[in-house]
Amino acid sequence: MSELAILGTYSVFLASYVVFALGKFPGMKIDRPGAAIIGAVLMFMTGAVRVENSLRLIHFGTIVLLFSMMLVVAYLHLAGFFDWVTELVVTQLKPHHLLPTVIFLSGLLSAFFVNDIICLVMVPFVLKVTGRMGIKPIPYLLAVATASNIGSTATITGNPQNMLIGSFSDIGYRDFLWHLGPVALAGLFLDWFVLWWLYFRGQVHDVRTEPVVNAVQIEHAALLKAGIVAALVLAGFLAGFSPALVASVGAAVLLITRTRDPHLVYDEVDWGLLVFFVGLFLIVGGAENAGLTRHLLGFGERFNLQHLGVFTLVTAILSNLVSNVPAVMLLKSLVSQFANTHSAWLTLAMASTLAGNLTITGSVANIIVVERAQKEAVITFLDYFRIGLPVTLLTLLVGWLWLSWIR
After folding, report:
1. Count of beta carbons in the 10 Å neighbourhood of residue 172
2. How many CB atoms lie within 10 A of CB 206?
3. How do residues 291-344 score in pLDDT, each as one tens digit?
């Protein structure tokens, strides 16, 4: 590549990451998926990506896994699985159990299903329960956001960045769960403590509970089928089969139906996120072809990024600057050169996920919670930050110490 082409490639890369960081292009309605498409097209124009080699830059295993999990969760959602779980919890709930219930339910579901989707389900649940009990919903909404991020740390299928790391690293599902499951569990307890300390310390629960007026509508046959398939998919993950293959088989089985309108299922899929991934693969691949990896390696040697503490800090900062998925894509070339790549991949997964709890814009899950609840409960930047800062620092510390010890 000529120097002009290299300069153009780096300019496209930096401009794309600015949009990823800001969420949209200043003064225009270009969002992250749009910036990913534009950036990918410009990479072809600079010559950093060639048509004949472009498909090699796209990691289709990640795309297939993400898409398939969206379909599996969509069928569960449409069949009423999440409504059934939340209604079951509502009928058995005592007021002082609400906070830990929200935290551990959000965390557990997010560990095995994509955390963004769990937030879409849990926000109406929290608003419904707090409305019945006559209590302020904000602490519990914050619990949904923070716990879903923490819980998703545990597995490859917990969030999009973990799916990327699982595909690039070839770390098995059980191996991933064994190393990061304890971090997620400890993080949920820390989240519970911080929320209790800031909102409920010294308070006595004095609330009213009204009976459930309208029972949720459950499609029992569809729920049974979706539940069996989801259980088999999770069993396949734990058995060590390829996550992308297992998830795609499960999604294909669910698509074989006589009653479910497939368009309702497709409406549940986040097509923008899939487009964003494809464009991001091409943008980062083009930058690597132009020599980005060489510069990153020099940066890594200068700041001793192979030290897990330093790498945790850098990942956390970068994840808040440009969002966690672009941060993982940027750092993946660096990780492959580490002496202990296994620990480095796990640290990247842990830090990029837990760092998302720092601010509202730290992860898509946080934004979903704030936007879904804004008509009934306004969460300000400071409301979130006073919880996000201690939760992020404590969980990152625990994650770093655990991975440094267990490696």
Report:
1. 18
2. 8
3. 776 776 666 667 677 788 888 988 888 888 777 888 888 888 788 778 888 999
